Amino acid sequence: MPADPGPMARRRQLGAALRTYRLHAGMSVRDVAESLLCSPAKISRIETAGRNILPRDVRDLCDLYQVDQGSRDELMRLARGSRETAWWQNFGLDPALEKFVGLEGSAVQIRDYQIGTVPGLLQTREYATEVLSVWLGDDLAAVKKAVDVRMMRREAVADNAELHFIMDESVVRRVVGSRSIMVGQVARMVDECESSPNVRLQLVPYGAGATKGLISGFIALRFAATTTADGPVPAMSDMIYSEGISKEGFYVEKDEDVRQYIKAFDELAATAMSEAETLSTLRSVHRTLSGSVLL
Fold this sequence. Notes:
The chain has helices spanning 7-24, 29-36, 40-47, 55-65, 69-81, 95-104, 125-136, 140-156, 170-173, 179-195, 255-271, 275-292; strands at 109-114, 162-168, 199-204, 218-222, 226-228, 231-233, 239-242, 250-252.
């Protein structure tokens, strides 16, 4: 995980780790609740990050599960950090987006497939303004706030995170806003390809035919375990996020369902242009657009 994953990620990692230790101890949620004289709902909310967890709760659960000292210290650190204020909390985000933003910055691998727009982490401010204005209309303050969040998301992603973006070829050929805006947007993608060793970018060509990506775009997040002197602390499970037509997107977190999305992403990567072919196409599109801009 990055140096400062944020309170949302800490809370979810803490919950995932405690669930793993409970299962290793051979205990059900009801067993734990009876041992600690609390409700089963409290234990479930702790494990699913549905509530903040107090350090004394972590202490009691670690005692019950007989967690080693190194892992116990790490879990206590996560508990204290989960109560801090995150940068995005002042923006008043919808709950689903707040959850996503809170987790994206802690991912060690982000795989993002989009069929209609440039992935958010690659968007320029001008392109993002045009896209978000479609949803937010003439509310200029709301558009600016949404764009600011989108720009800050990229800064919050860990420097060593692996970023793999796949998008339909039509995304870079569709003029969003103006040709001038698209020149800047495509130039940004060319720069990412050429100068960011942790970024992979591929286009699915028109000639690819039918693919599993025709239905919708999605983002897959993968997380790492924290290692202590006594061994690794269990990591959060991979998850899928997809933006919807309405304000809130949706999550896929069941292991089997997540595997299906990852399989679809891998198939799209195999169908898409190679990274070298993608870069060549982007340069060609940029030349075409640049020649059409009135200077």
